Amino acid sequence: MLAASGTATAQTEPFLSVTRGAGAESCPDAARLIERVEQLRGRPETGASGSYVVEFTREADGFRASIRSGSGARELRDRSRSCAGLEQATAVTLALLLDSDGQASSPQGPGVVARDAPPPAPPAPSPSASAERPLVARPAPAGAGGGEREAPTSERGATRLTLAAGAAGLFGVVRPFAPALSTELGIGGARFRAAIGALWLVPQTLELGPGELRETMFGGVVRACFAAAGVGVLRFDVCSGVHAGRLKAAASGFTRNDAVEKTWLAIPFELSLASLAGPLGFDVGAAALVPLRRNDFSVDGVGVAYRSPPVGALVSLRGVGSWVL
């Protein structure tokens, strides 16, 4: 524990002592604090009506100063990374306390008429602001009220409108792999989201005997997702819905060249990793596609162009723009 007087004038008892707990070594010692008090009061401190004890401690969210004197106790908190703001606030509080205690205990001088002294004014409130962040001043006993308030809730849980566009890959639908383009319009909140979109298959050419088949598809998708983990910057969703589209195959190079269209329906079971909290994000998805009906194209006398498996797959990567509603 450090103790010091602030002036060259001798004092029988030091009026201020300072202790600094672990992590609070950057806070001022007694000499430094007395110097700051004298600067604020504009005169050296030649004597005090009582003694003051200041204890600085380091907490998880900042610094705390406890001031104890004969007139009571004060507690100051500062959520800053340095002790500079708390040092200034403590010096101001001590200066106010010295003025208040000095007025209450000053002797009457010559020519002063004795009167009943009015009740001493309550100690001036401690400063509530520092150079870096606001300070929270409250009495030392717990449960006295006036606690700190939590920060406003984030917009991450707000309802958002999203627009996504990107590339996709179809596996086991018209051939082992076929590229596609995907777009979606969606709406959702912290846990749930839903979207409606479109999927366009890049035209594919399949060689078959003496000729070839050119396949195209344009379809739509409706899906709903639930956040299984994470609702902040990253979220992990499980999704399902319906894929529907029109598959078209046009033959060329055969004795008879026809064009045929078929309906394609599939149920997706998807896992998605998405970042949707900000104005720009992304959505990466991998889905197993269970077709309700397998539509393979064949040519009479030649055979099937591609025999699709019982389960296909869709992998997608989309950029996402979102707006809070």
Number of domains: 2
What is the strand arrangement across the widest sheet?
7-8-9-10-11-12-13-16
Low-confidence stretches: 1-12, 106-119, 127-132, 139-154
Count of DSSP helices? 2
Radius of gyration of CA atoms, rounded to a whole number: 38 Å
- Strand tally is 16
Principal-axis shape: rod-shaped
Q: How helix-rich are the residues, as a percent range?
A: 10-25%
Mean pLDDT comes to 80
Instruction: Tell me the distance between the termini.
Output: 57 Å
SSE layout and pairing:
Blueprint lengths: L1 E2 L12 E5 L9 H12 L10 E8 L2 E8 L2 E7 L5 H22 L29 E4 L21 E12 L5 E12 L3 E17 L2 E19 L5 E18 L6 E17 L4 E12 L6 E2 L3 E2 L7 E13 L1
Parallel strand pairs: 2-3
Antiparallel strand pairs: 1-2, 3-4, 4-5, 5-6, 7-8, 7-16, 8-9, 9-10, 10-11, 11-12, 12-13, 13-16, 14-15
Please, could you describe this protein's structure?
Residues 1-24, 101-156 are annotated as: Disordered. Residues 117-126 have a biased composition (Pro residues). Residues 127-142 have a biased composition (Low complexity). It comes from Sorangium atrum. This is Secreted protein. By secondary structure, the protein is mainly β. The protein has two domains: 2-105 and 123-138, no CATH class; 159-324, Porin (Beta Barrel), CATH 2.40.160. The chain is 10% helix and 49% strand. It is built from two helices and 16 strands. It has an eight-stranded antiparallel barrel with strand order 7-8-9-10-11-12-13-16. Strand 12 (259-275) and strand 13 form a beta hairpin. Helix 1 packs across helix 2. Residues 1-12, 106-119, 127-132 and 139-154 have low confidence and may be disordered.
